[in-house]
Amino acid sequence: ETPFKKLKDGLLSGTSLEEDAAGFDINENESTVSITVVGASGDLAKKKIFPALFALYYEGCLPEHFTICGYARSKMTDAELRNMVSRTLTCRIDKRENCDEKMEQFLKRCFYHSGQYDSEENFADLDKKLKQHEGRRVSNRLFYLSIPPNIFIDAVKCASVSASSGNGWTRVIVEKPFGRDSESSAALTKSLKQYLAEEQIFRIDHYLGKELVENLSVLRFSNLIFEPLWSRQYIRNVQFIFSEDFGTEGRGGYFDNYGIIRDIMQNHLLQILALFAMETPVSLDAEDIRNEKVKVLRSMRPLQLEDVVVGQYKSHTKGGVTYPAYTDDNTVPKGSLTPTFAAAALFIDNARWDGVPFLMKAGKALHTKSAEIRVQFRHVPGNLYNRNFGTDLDRATNELVIRVQPDEAIYLKINNKVPGLGMRLDRSNLNLLYAARYSKEIPDAYERLLLDAVEGERRLFIRSDELDAAWSLFTPLLKELEEKKVIPEYYPYGSRGPVGAHYLAARYNVRWG
Ligand code: NDP
Ligand code: BG6
């Protein structure tokens, strides 16, 4: 007799209560959510997914009845999974608080099932295991595909055929990369749609879950002082900058097949650009927002080779330490031309943004780790104080910086009189530093996105037409780079990247922030 069939005293006395495998009372009118992490033995699951699930549990955001199941080929017992997961859980919410008890309760709700990704039978066994935990509640199921893309479709097929919910919803979170170009992305979408409806597919771009990216719309649409300035009339250029101070360590095999343009620009930076530049949506409804994002992406010019600079990091010795070149990684083919850095100028051909350069820069193994949006405003016409800036008029313009990470902040560079009897101006910052203003820890992007997927909120997930539009901008360029075997400009590990990025910006009268 399975535990959930075991009748409780309550049932014998006429109520409709049973117990599930974890010993919880079952009420048939209740619902439960089962979250299956497919690829649970992997890097992303350990680093991000399980910790995010724990944080949601800690904050009381998960439904009362939930089950988390790890699924992968590796052989593991439930206890071994719990042990693996426990090593990466931290008490993020309040580091001083002892959250051992909560961790223990959370881990009790985590289980493991070993199986192949292409075996309907193995997924049918998973289904049986999940049912033991769900009992006769309405069972909602979320599958998180944290596996390499070549096995996405096998896993989706088996999960949907053998383990989808019989009486509730079934949703699937798909991790990037969503193909390598327009054709492969369309093929992936087509295959996914053989087994799932579009509303069941949650394509994740974790940059959309970052606090300051979510705040972009709030900043624009709920402050009178920004939206009227948000156009070619006042904005000179916009910059989207991503930099990491480490190389592809450990992920060279994956990276070499994609490169920085596909890894960061086509998705993370372009998504931020779309949110930045879109027209006001009709409402905050997911479809209204995504409609506006698609519109702006479709108004953009596909990238031209002459508007792009690519680079690759080379070995560099500093302070007696030698940092490796990209091609020193054993998993990277010798002589690989894959860019680890790229800078690009993009244009939106619509009335709001005509002629405004949107510059992107993304690189690995640079001097710093950060992600920022920089909005440089035009000169004040006939500025009375121009002479205070000498010939360097660029310094006199306002700049709005949205620092996505680290040290989240929004600051506005303004000109200000230096206090005193003379008339000297300097550049000062109106500064909203999150750590100083808000005491609460900022949630990790994966927490927000997982919660949204559980709640069916699609605003921060990528719709298939958005994905098509994004690929059409980059595919011709990517093909040309590969066909012409364009040699990247080599830059030392830990530097500011290729000097070509400065020439590109200068061509559009832009200075990188
Ligand atoms: P891993 O390479 O760690 O793979 C996850 C699991 O999949 C492995 O533990 C392994 O489990 C199984 N697996 C790996 N290779 C194969 C294979 N060739 N055939 C069958 N199964 C395989 O991936 P990550 O955890 O790093 O990433 C998962 C997904 O998330 C990928 O799509 C990745 O592109 C994406 N992603 C990852 C990020 C990261 O920081 N790691 C960031 C953003 C996206 P087992 O052998 O036990 O079955
Ligand atoms: C991933 C890329 O999508 O984003 C990685 O594949 C990159 O190459 C990572 O390191 C950066 O994410 P974050 O949140 O650490 O800035």
Structure characterization notes:
Helix 10 (259-277) crosses helix 11. The longest helix is centred in the last third of the chain and has 20 residues, at 464-483. The chain has helices spanning 9-12, 43-58, 78-86, 100-108, 120-134, 152-162, 182-195, 211-221, 252-256, 259-277, 286-298, 434-437, 445-455, 464-483, 500-507, and strands spanning 18-19, 25-26, 31-38, 66-72, 110-114, 138-145, 170-174, 201-204, 235-243, 308-314, 316-318, 321-323, 341-346, 358-363, 370-377, 399-405, 409-417, 425-433, 461-462, 489-492. The chain is of the alpha/beta class and 513 residues long. Strand 11 (316-318) and strand 12 form a beta hairpin. Bound molecules: NADPH dihydro-nicotinamide-adenine-dinucleotide phosphate and 6-O-phosphono-beta-D-glucopyranose (BG6). 6-O-phosphono-beta-D-glucopyranose binds next to loops. Residues 39, 41-45, 72-74, 117, 146-149, 151, 175-177, 254 line the site of NADPH dihydro-nicotinamide-adenine-dinucleotide phosphate (NDP).
List the helices and strands and how they pair.
Elements: H1 9-12, E1 18-19, E2 25-26, E3 31-38, H2 43-58, E4 66-72, H3 78-86, H4 100-108, E5 110-114, H5 120-134, E6 138-145, H6 152-162, E7 170-174, H7 182-195, E8 201-204, H8 211-221, E9 235-243, H9 252-256, H10 259-277, H11 286-298, E10 308-314, E11 316-318, E12 321-323, E13 341-346, E14 358-363, E15 370-377, E16 399-405, E17 409-417, E18 425-433, H12 434-437, H13 445-455, E19 461-462, H14 464-483, E20 489-492, H15 500-507
Parallel strand pairs: 3-4, 3-6, 4-5, 6-7, 7-8, 9-14, 10-20
Antiparallel strand pairs: 1-2, 8-19, 9-15, 10-13, 11-12, 13-14, 15-16, 16-17, 17-18
